[in-house]
């Protein structure tokens, strides 16, 4: 688990800085809240783990 945090930290920092610099903290916060609920759902998590979907298809699944 610590390794995941170590890997994720620079991406999280970059996302925060981007949102802050573009005055979009509220919209980023809302999107992250939605995504955290979505990936906690068993059906969504199962679909996202499918090897039949590439990364682009998975992103479309979450953004539609």
Q: What is the terminal separation in angstroms?
A: 30 Å
Which spans of ≥5 residues are poorly predicted at pLDDT below 50?
none
The coarse overall form would be: globular
Order of helices and strands: HHHH
Number of strands: 0
Mean pLDDT: 91
InterPro entries: ATP_synth_OSCP/delta_N_sf, ATPase_OSCP/dsu
Pfam families: OSCP
Keywords: ATP synthesis, CF(1), Hydrogen ion transport, Ion transport, Membrane, Transport
Protein name: ATP synthase subunit 5, mitochondrial
Summarize the structure.
InterPro entries: ATP_synth_OSCP/delta_N_sf, ATPase_OSCP/dsu. With 64 residues, the protein is mainly α. It has helices at 2-21, 25-40, 42-48, 55-63.
Describe this structure in words.
The protein is mainly α and 64 residues long. It has one domain (2-63). It is 81% helix and 0% strand. It has helices at 2-21, 25-40, 42-48, 55-63. The longest helix is centred in the N-terminal third of the chain and has 20 residues, at 2-21. The chain is globular, with a radius of gyration of 14 Å. The model has no long low-confidence stretch (mean pLDDT 91).
